[in-house]
């Protein structure tokens, strides 16, 4: 049976400026028998492409799945001229690039799609940060389930984990390029070396994964790093939700891999702080159980979202 798919650009007004959020909906949102799932990609600054395996949930479990590129990323509006995408503002009008921006965009998308009465969220890496902040700040009554995949409870814990793992596999030269890049191309080379062990161990690396990385960290001078640079240099650089996790009131599933960039101590606060929580560790995965153990991962999600 062919799946219904639709792509649209959703207007998003922020600080008086109208941006556009690129969205793909797979499945029928009018079918009230299954709760739609919103997929939040990582980064900040990547794209939805590497999250596309979640289309399996639409095919096999009839769950409508919503993919989108967060503002400043990929096909959505940018803050600088990018691949023919002209920003909807002058540089003097650019709003603060903070977590509030992405929470507001997610709220706008939910309102536009008219799914506020019932929806689930899965967030990978930074996408989990966005998901937990949305749940805490908005307290949406229609949110039914949260899933955090290889995510983080604080950037300090994430930084500690990445530093440990990079010390185990990267030379001093590549470690310097990872944390203090001299160019985007060299940074990407260091990132790829780290990811080969702890990021995505699939051989070859799926094209969708490479495509997502290209949007924010490309060997060529064609990426827009505005969002990751602004976020890590600003609010996200010292971010933590550890002391606010008791405000996550919906059933939550935590997933990480045995060889994950998000080591156990990075996700442990989720398990300790969220009242209704489960934690599953994927034995054969790094940071991309979505690809590395795809069938088991999708089965796990379908079961949890059906509870």
From TrEMBL:
Query: Example GO biological process term?
Result: proteolysis
Q: Which GO terms describe its cellular component?
A: membrane
AB hydrolase-1 domain residues: 37-295
Query: Per its record, what are the GO molecular function terms?
Result: peptidase activity
Which one Pfam family would you cite for this protein? Answer: Abhydrolase_6
UniProt keywords, alphabetically:
Hydrolase
What superkingdom heads the lineage? Eukaryota
Q: Which SUPFAM superfamilies match?
A: alpha/beta-Hydrolases
Q: Which InterPro entries match?
A: AB_hydrolase_1, AB_hydrolase_fold, AB_hydrolase_sf, Peptidase_S33, Pro_imino_pep
Q: Which family does it belong to?
A: Belongs to the peptidase S33 family.
- Name the PANTHER family on file: HYDROLASE, PUTATIVE (AFU_ORTHOLOGUE AFUA_2G14860)-RELATED, MONOACYLGLYCEROL LIPASE
Name this polypeptide is given: Proline-specific peptidase
């Amino acid at each position: 049976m062919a799946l219904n798919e639709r792509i649209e650009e959703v207007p998003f007004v922020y600080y008086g400026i109208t941006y556009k959020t690129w969205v793909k909906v797979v499945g029928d949102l009018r079918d009230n028998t299954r709760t739609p799932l919103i997929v939040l990609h990582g980064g900040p600054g990547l794209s939805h492409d590497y999250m596309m395996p979640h289309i399996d949930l639409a095919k096999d479990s009839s769950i409508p799945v919503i993919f989108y590129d967060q503002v400043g990323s990929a096909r959505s509006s940018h803050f600088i001229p990018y691949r023919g995408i002209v920003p909807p503002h002058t540089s003097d009008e650019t709003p603060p690039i903070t977590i509030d921006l992405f929470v507001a965009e997610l709220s706008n998308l939910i309102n536009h799609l008219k799914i506020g009465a019932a929806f689930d969220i899965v967030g990978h890496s930074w996408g989990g940060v966005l998901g937990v902040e949305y749940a805490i700040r908005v307290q949406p009554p229609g949110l039914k389930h949260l899933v955090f995949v290889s995510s983080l409870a604080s950037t300090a814990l994430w930084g500690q984990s990445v530093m440990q793992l990079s010390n185990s596999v990267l030379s001093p030269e590549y470690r310097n390029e990872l944390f203090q890049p001299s160019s985007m191309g060299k940074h990407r080379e260091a990132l790829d070396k780290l990811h080969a062990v702890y990021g995505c161990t699939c051989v070859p690396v799926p094209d969708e994964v490479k495509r997502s990385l290209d949007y924010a960290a490309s060997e060529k001078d064609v990426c827009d790093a505005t969002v990751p640079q602004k976020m890590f240099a600003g609010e996200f650089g010292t971010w933590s939700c550890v002391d606010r996790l008791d405000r996550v009131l919906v059933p939550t599933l935590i997933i990480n891999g045995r060889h994950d960039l998000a080591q156990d101590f990075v996700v442990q606060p989720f398990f300790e702080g969220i009242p209704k929580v489960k934690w599953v560790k994927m034995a054969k995965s790094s940071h991309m159980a979505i690809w590395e153990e795809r069938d088991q991962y999708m089965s796990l999600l379908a079961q949890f979202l059906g509870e």
